[in-house]
């Protein structure tokens, strides 16, 4: 039997210190934030759910709970220690150690089509304008016409240049962008962007 290991905060911090631009946070996301971010995962059918930047698996666990054995859950993680631990702690998840910018080829290699839902735990504030653009292009290219994309931002950083750039980019690439309620009990507090109907 495989236990659902959660990476200890000290291990998460170590990975942040080793690679702050790819980890992007000093602590894992909390359960409340995970519930809000993964809310678009359907409770019926066999959806393809793609998770970008799963890290230690906070959103992964929530997605698996919503899927309850249905569909296909692909987690794309560039950090090798995180990817390795995720594959062990969540054997039902298809873990790809890859860059989110390569999502099109990752799906093609697996013979998978477009995603019903894409959930992102990526550190947008740490991305350059080009990296933001490339990742969002990959999302748009691999999301079904009526699919959903969710991501989040930390409240304290919402007005920084990268966060404002992300919001503008989401608005130009989706027909609908809804800013959800603030999740105050996350550390740090965060808000969620719910995006639907990608514009191609």
Q: How would you sum up this structure, described in words?
A:
By secondary structure, the protein is of the alpha/beta class. The protein is 38% helix and 26% strand. It has eight helices and seven strands, in the order αααβαβαβαβαβαββ. The protein has helices spanning 9-18, 20-23, 31-37, 58-67, 80-89, 103-109, 129-142, 161-173, and strands spanning 48-52, 72-77, 94-97, 115-120, 143-154, 174-183, 190-198. The protein has a seven-stranded mixed sheet, with helices on both faces. Strand 6 (174-183) and strand 7 (190-198) form a beta hairpin. Helix 3 (31-37) packs across helix 4 (58-67). The longest helix has 14 residues, at 129-142. It is globular and about 40 Å long. Residues 1-27 have low confidence and may be disordered.
């Amino acid at each position: 039997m495989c236990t659902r290991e959660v990476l200890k905060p000290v291990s998460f911090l170590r990975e942040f210190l080793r690679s702050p631009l790819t980890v992007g946070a000093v602590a894992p996301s909390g359960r409340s934030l995970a519930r809000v971010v993964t809310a678009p995962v359907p409770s019926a059918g066999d959806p393809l759910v793609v998770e970008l930047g799963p890290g230690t698996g906070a959103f992964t666990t929530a997605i698996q709970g919503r899927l309850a054995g249905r569909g296909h859950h692909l987690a794309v993680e560039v950090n090798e220690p995180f990817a390795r631990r995720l594959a062990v702690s969540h054997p039902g998840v298809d873990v790809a150690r890859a860059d989110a910018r390569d999502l099109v080829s990752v799906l093609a290699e697996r013979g998978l089509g477009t995603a019903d839902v894409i959930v992102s735990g990526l550190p947008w504030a740490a991305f350059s304008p080009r990296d933001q653009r490339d990742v969002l292009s990959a999302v748009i290219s691999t999301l079904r016409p009526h699919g959903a994309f969710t991501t989040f931002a930390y409240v304290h950083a919402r007005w920084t240049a990268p966060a404002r750039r992300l919001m503008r980019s989401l608005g130009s690439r989706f027909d609908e962008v809804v800013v959800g309620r603030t999740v105050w009990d996350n550390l740090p507090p965060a808000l969620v962007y719910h995006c639907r109907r990608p514009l191609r």
